[in-house]
Structure to design on (179 residues):
C-alpha cells in the first residue's frame, strides 16, 4: 500500500476540479435509445397559457425487469397541431397510451369515452411499453440560429456527443404494449 503525503491548506487553494468532470457528474442521468417497460409513478395536470390541459407523466423505466432510470413526458387529450398540420406529440402519446391501457375498446368512439382521470389511474396501475430516445443537443446554435439535436443510436455515438459537451435528454417517442 502506498503512503499518503500530507497537503497544506495553502496548497489546497491552488487545487480545482475539471469542468468536464463536474459537468459529467452533474448531468441528468439518461437511458440509451431503446424500447422499455414504463411504470407510471406520478402525474401533474395543468392548463398552459392558451388553456390547453397538459399532463406531465413520470414513470420508472425498466429493462428486463430491472429499473434503469426514470423519465418524464407530456400528454394531452386536447388536440393541437404542428406547423405542418399534424397532430402534436402530446396528443399522439395520449392516444397511444389510451389504446394500450384500454385494449377492450376497439373503436375511436369507445376510446373517446375514456375519462382522463381514469386513464391516469390505469397508467399508475399497469405497465406500458415505450420507445425512448437518448437525444443530445448542441451547446450552441448553428447558422440558422437553432440548436442541433441528434439521437444516439449506439453507445459509441452517445460517448462521442458527451465528449463534445452536448447535453443529453430522454424523449418518449411512442407508447405501445409491453414487450
Amino acid at each position: 500500500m502506498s503512503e499518503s503525503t500530507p497537503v497544506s491548506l495553502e496548497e489546497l487553494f491552488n487545487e480545482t476540479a475539471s469542468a468536464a468532470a463536474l459537468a459529467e457528474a452533474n448531468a441528468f442521468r439518461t437511458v440509451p435509445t431503446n424500447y422499455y417497460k414504463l411504470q407510471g409513478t406520478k402525474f401533474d395536470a395543468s392548463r398552459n397559457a392558451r388553456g390547453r390541459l397538459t399532463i406531465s407523466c413520470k414513470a420508472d423505466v425498466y429493462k428486463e425487469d430491472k429499473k434503469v432510470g426514470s423519465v418524464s413526458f407530456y400528454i394531452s387529450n386536447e388536440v393541437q397541431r404542428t406547423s405542418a398540420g399534424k397532430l402534436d406529440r402530446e396528443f399522439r402519446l395520449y392516444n397511444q397510451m389510451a389504446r394500450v391501457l384500454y385494449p377492450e375498446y376497439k373503436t375511436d368512439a369507445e376510446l373517446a369515452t375514456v375519462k382522463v382521470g381514469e386513464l391516469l389511474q390505469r397508467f399508475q396501475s399497469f405497465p406500458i411499453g415505450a420507445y425512448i430516445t437518448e437525444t443530445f443537443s448542441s451547446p450552441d446554435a448553428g447558422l440558422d440560429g437553432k440548436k442541433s439535436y441528434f439521437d444516439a443510436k449506439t453507445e459509441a455515438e452517445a460517448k462521442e456527443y458527451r465528449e463534445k459537451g452536448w447535453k443529453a435528454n430522454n424523449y418518449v417517442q411512442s407508447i405501445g404494449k409491453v414487450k
The longest strand covers residues 34-47.
